[in-house]
Amino acid sequence: MRTSWPQLMEEISACEKCRLCETRTNVVPGEGDPHAKLMFIGEGPGRDEDLQGRPFVGRSGELLTRMIRAIGLEREQVYICNVVKCRPPQNRNPQPDEAAACLNYLRAQVGLVRPKVVALLGKVACRYALQQEISVMREHGNWYERKGIWFMPTYHPSALLREPSLKRASWDDFQKIRDKLREIEAAGEEHGE
Ligand code: URA
Ligand code: SF4
Prior knowledge:
By secondary structure, this protein is α/β, with parallel strands linked by helices. Helix content is about 45%, strand content about 15%. Bound molecules: uracil (URA) and iron/sulfur cluster.
């Protein structure tokens, strides 16, 4: 699927491909640097996101923003989006048919951003981005290479809010992400990119 940013954003904003369109207030397509080196994929919009039409702006979002800053980046320098672009009622997990209906948008976003590194926030992001069942507890911090892009499962910020003792492991993951970006940048400079 070949598309441009304006075309894609327009299509997502008007989408009625699954039942989540019936209960949403706003579509939450995603935001950030359209050519970011680092991308974050969450699960789906929550209440605050649904009200504002922007990803990760509630409590989880505040924590994510702090974690991004902690590795020396601003939110505007990364790209942030979700598996589904409309809020599942009561914040339930997206159902398989909903995720399937929405997944082409995520693929198009990855194709347009062409990030070097993708942080997968939680099990649902891993399931649909890697098409694999992953235990985040066991697999967080490991790299999965797909078509030249490095994907890392890590904790969803809402898990860190529920269970602050996981923050230490999450911080280790974020440092690995920072190191990987540095490594890729250094290799690029060697090749005159
Ligand atoms: N949780 C998510 O998975 N995504 C958001 O955008 C907000 C909370
Ligand atoms: Fe369309 Fe995705 Fe929203 Fe479903 S969740 S209506 S597929 S944009």
